[in-house]
Amino acid sequence: AQSVSQHNHHVILSEAASLELGCNYSYGGTVNLFWYVQYPGQHLQLLLKYFSGDPLVKGIKGFEAEFIKSKFSFNLRKPSVQWSDTAEYFCAVNARNTDKLIFGTGTRLQVFP
Amino acid sequence: DVKVTQSSRYLVKRTGEKVFLECVQDMDHENMFWYRQDPGLGLRLIYFSYDVKMKEKGDIPEGYSVSREKKERFSLILESASTNQTSMYLCASSSQGAYQPQHFGDGTRLSIL
Q1: pLDDT digits over A33-58, tens only?
Q2: Residue A35 near residue A50 (C-beta atoms within 8 A)
Q3: What one-character-per-residue DSSP string does B27-86 give?
Q4: In the prediction, which pLDDT does A99 show?
Q5: Would the pLDDT of B70 be above 90?
Q6: Do B101 and B4 meet the contact criterion of CB atoms below 8 Å apart?
Q7: Which residues of A31-49 are buried (b: 16+ CB within 10 A; e: fewer)?
Q8: Could you give the CA distance from residue B37 to residue B105 in angstroms, rounded to a whole number?
Q9: pLDDT in tens, B37-61
Q10: Nearest CA to CA, how far is A75 from chain B (Å)?
């Protein structure tokens, strides 16, 4: 069965620090990969996605993620975080033959001014 | 912009009651999903519908049923509510295609007393 692991459950950073959130998945076939973000009191929204082509994808608000097939990873990065990045971040994956997503358990990010 | 509307933001019910959670999307999406979100567990798929009157069980369907009589509306039914169904329930919709992102509603926080 497919699964997604987010090893960082809670991350605390100061503004301007760099961010990297880990995401690993278990599925040997071709996958689509997503990062979603949930700001406090808001609905989940798409941050970025990868389904083919350049393994380095750029999303909204300065976020990027790199797909490394050999490591089954899709880590999220941002060079300099802001207080407004405080949110919960979810990695998700699906196999190419299904529209259903498998979500990770989420990483709660707190950024202090 | 895609709009996914969940009928209630907060709901309090008693054990044994039959509970209906409603979700409407305005983008003519074929796919609709119901998840529950619990701290430390991420999002878990309850049911998925890929067309009117078509449904597929997700990872945790026990104690739930769904109804999709019209394309824009997807209802989640708790047949006999129990305290372990206290949770945040999220509805999502998407176009068909594994690379298509899902669009989420604001969620319904359901408490079963």
Answers
A1: 999 999 999 999 999 999 889 999 99
A2: no
A3: S--SEEEEEEEETTTEEEEEEEEEETTEEEE-S--TTEEEEEEETTEEEEEESS--GGG-
A4: 86
A5: yes
A6: no
A7: bbbbbbbbeeeebbebbbb
A8: 13
A9: 999 899 999 999 999 989 999 999 9
A10: 17
What does the alpha-carbon distance between residue B73 and residue B51 come to, in Å, rounded to a whole number? 11
Could you say which of B42, B48, B101 has the minimum Cβ distance to residue A90? B42
Interface contact flag, A100 B97, Cβ < 8 Å: no
CB contact under 8 Å between A103 and B44, yes or no, is yes
How far apart, in whole angstroms, are the C-alpha atoms of residue A19 and residue A51?
23
Interface of B with A in 56-75 (CB under 8 A): 56, 58
Say if residue A101's pLDDT is above 80.
yes
Q: How far is B14 from chain A (nearest CA, A)?
A: 25
At residue B48, the pLDDT reads 95
Can you tell me the mean pLDDT for B74-80?
Answer: 97
What confidence score (pLDDT) does residue A20 get? 97
Q: Hey, of A99, A102, A105, A108, which one would you mutate to test binding to chain B, going by the most B CBs within 10 A of its CB?
A: A99
**Cβ–Cβ contact A53 with B under 8 A:** no
